[in-house]
Specification:
Elements: H1 10-28, H2 33-40, H3 44-51, H4 59-68, H5 73-76, E1 97-98, E2 107-112, E3 116-123, E4 138-145, E5 147-152, E6 156-161, E7 165-169, E8 174-179, E9 184-191
Antiparallel strand pairs: 1-2, 2-3, 3-9, 4-7, 4-9, 5-6, 5-8
Helix pairs in contact: 2-3, 2-4
Length: 194
């Protein structure tokens, strides 16, 4: 993550990807930076700045570089960058909700929902998570704090403590409950099936 904790600008993404494409094409052709710069009629330091994404070449310079690499300029241009490929979830934005309507139910919050989803569960002493769970895809349970017993129907019960994880196909019916006197916090990572 950039030091500013902000996504890079579209211009920066394009510059980085263009520079990487030029550097990779040059490396594939086993050309030194000096040789490419000479053939493209630009200085080696300027080429270095382009390859590192520090500066953008003009259209004429891009054509010169592409010609020196014996390729079309469009082959060096990156596809449209999608600034939405990075998703940041802030703790303050995720609301805790009851797992069920029962008065002694645990609470959960959705941290991220997508092809891969992340939910956090908080199970206080005496609270229940619910009955059997099953889904398509794959499920990973990661114990953040406390301990719990996870039962997979017909396969067994696993005692998990802080830092432990268990993964299994979502189609395996499972249920779990907190162990001990303290609360348990569990991250449930779910990847949808195809």
């Amino acid at each position: 993550m950039p030091a500013s904790d902000q996504p890079a600008s579209i211009d920066q993404l394009i510059g980085d990807r263009l520079g990487r494409a030029i550097r990779e094409a040059r490396s594939e052709r086993k050309l030194s930076m000096r040789a490419l710069a000479t053939t493209a009629e630009i200085s080696q330091p300027f080429l270095s700045q382009i390859e590192s994404g520090q500066t953008m070449p003009s259209l004429i310079t891009l054509y010169r570089i592409a010609n020196a690499l014996d390729m079309s300029p469009s082959a060096l241009l990156p596809a449209d960058p999608d600034p939405e490929v990075v998703h940041v979830s802030r703790a303050a934005d995720a609301r805790w909700v009851p797992v069920s309507e029962a008065p002694d139910t645990a609470h959960t919050r959705v941290i991220h929902a997508g092809v891969t989803s992340l939910q956090e569960y908080l199970v206080r002493p005496g609270e229940r998570v619910g009955d059997w769970f099953e889904s398509d895809g794959e499920v990973v349970h990661y114990v953040i704090e406390g301990s719990l017993a996870l039962e997979i129907e017909g396969l067994g019960v696993w005692e998990l403590s802080e830092g432990d994880a268990i993964a299994h196909p979502g189609a395996l019916r499972n249920r779990w409950q907190s162990r001990g006197d303290g609360s348990a916090r569990v991250a449930l990572i779910y990847t949808a099936g195809s």
